[in-house]
Amino acid sequence: xxxxxxxxxxxxxxxxxxxxxxxxxxxxxxxxxxxxxxxxxxxxxxxxxxxxxxxxxxxxxxxxxxxxxxxxxxxxxxxxxxxxxxxxxxxxxxxxxxxxxxxxxxxxxxxxxxxxxxxxxxxxxxxxxxxxxxxxxxxxxxxxxxxxxxxxxxxxxxxxxxxxxxxxxxxxxxxxxxxxxxxxxxxxxxxxxxxxxxxxxxxxxxxxxxxxxxxxxxxxxxxxxxxxxxxxxxxxxxxxxxxxxxxxxxxxxxxxxxxxxxxxxxxxxxxxxxxxxxxxxxxxxxxxxxxxxxxxxxxxxxxxxxxxxxxxxxxxxxxxxxxxxxxxxxxxxxxxxxxxxxxxxxxxxxxxxxxxxxxxxxxxxxxxxxxxxxxxxxxxxxxxxxxxxxxxxxxxxxxxxxxxxxxxxxxxxxxx
Length: 416
Known about the structure:
Elements: H1 2-34, H2 49-80, H3 85-95, H4 102-133, H5 141-172, H6 177-204, E1 207-209, H7 213-225, E2 233-236, E3 247-252, E4 255-261, H8 262-267, H9 270-285, H10 288-310, H11 314-319, H12 327-342, H13 346-368, H14 370-383, H15 392-398, H16 404-411
Parallel strand pairs: 2-4
Antiparallel strand pairs: 1-2, 3-4
């Protein structure tokens, strides 16, 4: 009886989340199309009507793909759980006679591979249809396939190491595995922040030094003024794949790397590049990354405690379609079943993220002046086909950065 109730609750939650996502995407698409006939007053001197309409149709097309993918993913979740897909996969691996924990690792690896496989059609469509139609894609098929295989290799390596460690801990320390796992995940995040820029990122992109002496001098002066050390300022060959531009700071402590997309350097003036960097420095000075790590690790700890409790409840397995309870099926069910419930907490996370972006904007505006940052942002909005007017419900649910109109208007009220 309890299993049936759990199954019903899960299905209703998944369906409700799907309906919410479809409704939000519909609102976004309708809003941008309704406001695509004229440029908002805030941008009328910097963005042409043709550029505004390009962003409008690009956003509307992405919303349509999002709706189709939402239905596709919902079908996969229901098929994998209450539809018996995970149970069938478990029966297949049990029939091989392989013992745990190797069987559990192979089960989770095959599940990860299947999950990655179902997203490939949408990745292909976005890259070679949507991005190409609007002039962003520069990636040949060969490079796309190489990137996909590299990401799959990294993912499978991490899944193998993580799955084996967790499954071994559940056997070796059945009462405290969740605490040890939380500590190891926290340590892994810190280690990954150190390793990513020097080990993983160069596997996908080429990094070189900035040749423009003016930009290099501005960057170094800004870093020195804020007391930040770094392992260097690099240019990444983002133009090999796309015309989209971006910049970021990666790494921990004094071993930070500042990375500019080469497309960004082509789009912005030296002063605007300095303003964008000041925004990224603002995140560092305001300790946003540390705050997010703390909140994320707290959430992970709570999730692991919940998983440890659910793992001893037979109704958790039978309610979600598993006939033979085991640590690895509990882990698989939890990873699939948790996101539909966490979906409804997303607006809170996005609100905090937007607040951090506003704080970084304020920092940058006081370092380089609000005009330079606003001008840089408008250029990026224009060149990346970012919609200038968006649906407030969609933005509240999905936007980690403030909507363009609100962001630029707010910068206009900040004193340099």
